[in-house]
Amino acid sequence: MNLNSTFIVQFVVFFILAGFTMKFIWPPLMKALDERAQKIADGLAAAERSKSEMKAAEKRVQAELASAHDEGQKRINDAEKRAQLIVDEAKNTASEEAARILANAKADAEQQVTKARDELRNQVAVLAVKGAEQILKREINASAHAELLTHLKAEL
């Protein structure tokens, strides 16, 4: 065999094999590679969408957390104001009650002082009558001299 003929035969076999490969093997292989590339591209796009959705969701969560924190702070402030109002109302009620109790105590003390003065006047009148009786050495009739005794009580 001649080297040139071998070379030509190998060249022809190569082109036949290349043609067969390009006609029957290459298209399914390229189709599989394209499908794989498309799946990878779809997966990367989905990952990017998920990433952007995750960032948006994170922003929404942060906004809701801030809103919840603000609302909680507002409720705390409202509760503190309400507690202060309740304390102020209790202080006012206690002050009014103390003033009322003090006024009742003063009125009660005035009544007791007036009652004690009246009792003291009666006792002084009785002592004055007894003293006058001793001085006059005679008995004074309390019912007969009631007007005199009343006038004496009023003066005392």
UniProtKB/TrEMBL annotation:
Recorded GO CC terms: endomembrane system; plasma membrane; proton-transporting ATP synthase complex
Main location class: membrane
Membrane-spanning parts: 6-26
Keywords in alphabetical order: ATP synthesis, Cell membrane, CF(0), Coiled coil, Hydrogen ion transport, Ion transport, Membrane, Transmembrane, Transmembrane helix, Transport
Any coiled-coil regions, as ranges: 99-126
Xref: Pfam families: ATP-synt_B (PF00430)
Single GO term (MF): proton-transporting ATPase activity, rotational mechanism
InterPro entries cross-referenced by the UniProt entry: ATP_synth_B-like_membr_sf, ATP_synth_b/b'su_bac/chlpt, ATP_synth_F0_bsu_bac, ATP_synthase_B_chain
Annotated membrane topology: Single-pass membrane protein
Matches recorded under Gene3D superfamilies: F1F0 ATP synthase subunit B, membrane domain
Subcellular location: Cell membrane; Endomembrane system
Family classification: Belongs to the ATPase B chain family.
Database matches in HAMAP family: ATP_synth_b_bprime
Known role: F(1)F(0) ATP synthase produces ATP from ADP in the presence of a proton or sodium gradient. F-type ATPases consist of two structural domains, F(1) containing the extramembraneous catalytic core and F(0) containing the membrane proton channel, linked together by a central stalk and a peripheral stalk. During catalysis, ATP synthesis in the catalytic domain of F(1) is coupled via a rotary mechanism of the central stalk subunits to proton translocation.
Subunit structure: F-type ATPases have 2 components, F(1) - the catalytic core - and F(0) - the membrane proton channel. F(1) has five subunits: alpha(3), beta(3), gamma(1), delta(1), epsilon(1). F(0) has four main subunits: a(1), b(2) and c(10-14). The alpha and beta chains form an alternating ring which encloses part of the gamma chain. F(1) is attached to F(0) by a central stalk formed by the gamma and epsilon chains, while a peripheral stalk is formed by the delta and b chains.
Protein name: ATP synthase subunit b
Phylogenetic placement of the source organism: Bacteria, Pseudomonadati, Pseudomonadota, Betaproteobacteria, Burkholderiales
Annotated gene: atpF
